[in-house]
Write a structure and sequence with these properties.
The protein is α+β, with helices and mostly antiparallel strands and 94 residues long. The chain contains one helix and three strands; from the N terminus they run H-E-E-E. A hairpin with a 7-residue loop joins strand 2 (59-68) and strand 3. The model has no long low-confidence stretch (mean pLDDT 78).
């Protein structure tokens, strides 16, 4: 387990707006670590679109999410605005 606060240097801890940005970064780092530890790519392929509801400041928004990395390549989570992934996403080839 990592100490999230230890990842942000003391000189980056400011007041006001900068403090809020710091808090957002701590949450982002913690959630990224939780995603990495959960290893969702071991269970889901990128062929599955997930429905995701986010709430910020009490206001909820809907998104589509795709877990990357089931094939052992780049791992991560892609979040798209709206109820579904973009049209033509499955047709794309590198």
């Amino acid at each position: 387990m990592y100490a999230i606060g230890a990842l942000i240097p003391k000189e980056a801890q400011f007041s006001g707006l900068e403090r809020r940005k710091n808090q957002v970064m701590v949450v982002l780092i913690a959630e990224t670590l939780a995603l990495w530890q959960a290893e969702p790519w071991a269970r889901w392929s990128d062929e599955i679109d997930l429905a995701l509801e986010m709430s910020v400041g009490g206001e909820g928004t809907h998104h589509a999410a795709v877990v990357m990395g089931n094939a052992g390549l780049q791992r991560g989570l892609v979040v798209y605005p709206g109820e579904e992934a973009p049209a033509g996403l499955r047709d794309w080839h590198p």
